[in-house]
């Protein structure tokens, strides 16, 4: 997938899937810019990558540190991984809780792509990490989690629209559900749902396995598949 000169930018690289994508892409020979709010020890331990802190998709100027670091470089792969999930259920919903999901999961990634657009050259790929919970037509993921589901559906709409708007520039856009992954975010949600600690990692994919499956789909992403919504754990194209 990579050449030594190709640049991969991962927004949300300090933990979970973003961290594993950073490790995998580094191992494939990409030049890496790892963007995050604050670096983790695990991210800092990866050799020969450029870490850019202070990048926050939820703030209006959150892309500024990343734009400064890019200095006109062309991005081959742009990953929007940063996300937010908080357990909510009907009967206990509030506007602020719903709104923060949209700000981080949908509005933030879209504005980040817009900010990076001058650095996306012909043939670049933009990957938005989505979720099967954002599929209205799938119906396999139960109820509740309104903020997360609605915001991921909005992210899917944004990605599909981006695919159309970036078509003339031959920039492919992919929306990928990484599977149910063993991350701090997922474990925290399960804790808030009352799942016992011993069961919070049950039936979850290891983050490195998920990252490898995501990258397999990214390998096949081109202009003929731009705008599609995939499940990395099964390889299927998901319903909107």
Tell me what you see in this structure.
This protein has seven helices and seven strands; from the N terminus they run βαβαβαβαβαβααβ. Helix 1 packs across helix 7 (207-220) and helix 4 (95-116) packs parallel to helix 5. The two termini are 28 Å apart. It is of the alpha/beta class. The chain has one domain: NAD(P)-binding Rossmann-like Domain (Rossmann fold), CATH 3.40.50. It is globular, with a radius of gyration of 17 Å. The protein has helices at 16-27, 41-44, 64-70, 95-116, 146-165, 184-192, 207-220; strands at 7-11, 31-35, 50-52, 75-80, 120-129, 172-177, 229-231. Strand 4, helix 4 (95-116) and strand 5 form a beta-alpha-beta unit. The model has no long low-confidence stretch (mean pLDDT 93). It has a seven-stranded parallel sheet with strand order 3-2-1-4-5-6-7, with helices on both faces. One of its GO terms (molecular function) is oxidoreductase activity, acting on the CH-OH group of donors, NAD or NADP as acceptor.
């Amino acid at each position: 997938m990579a050449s030594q000169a190709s640049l991969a930018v991962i927004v949300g690289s300090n933990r979970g899937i973003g961290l594993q994508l950073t490790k995998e892409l580094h191992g494939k020979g990409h030049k890496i810019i790892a963007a995050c709010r604050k670096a983790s020890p695990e991210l800092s331990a990866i050799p020969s990558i450029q870490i850019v802190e202070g990048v926050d998709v939820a703030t209006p100027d959150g892309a500024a540190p990343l734009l400064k670091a890019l200095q006109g470089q062309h991005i081959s792969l742009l990953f929007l991984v940063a996300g937010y999930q908080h357990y909510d259920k009907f009967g206990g919903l509030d506007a602020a809780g719903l709104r923060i999901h949209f700000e981080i999961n949908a509005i933030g990634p879209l504005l980040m792509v817009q900010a990076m657009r001058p650095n996306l050259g012909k043939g670049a790929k933009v990957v938005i990490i989505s979720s099967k919970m954002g599929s209205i037509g799938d119906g396999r993921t139960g109820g509740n989690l309104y903020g997360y589901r609605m915001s991921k559906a909005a992210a899917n709409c944004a990605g599909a629209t981006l695919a159309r708007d970036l078509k003339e520039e031959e920039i492919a856009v992919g929306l990928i559900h990484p599977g149910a992954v063993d991350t701090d975010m997922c474990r925290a949600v399960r804790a808030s749902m009352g799942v016992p600690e011993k069961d919070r990692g049950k039936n979850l994919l290891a983050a490195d396995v998920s990252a490898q499956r995501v990258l397999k789909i990214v390998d096949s992403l081109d202009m003929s598949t731009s705008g599609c919504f995939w499940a990395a754990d099964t390889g299927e194209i998901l319903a909107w």
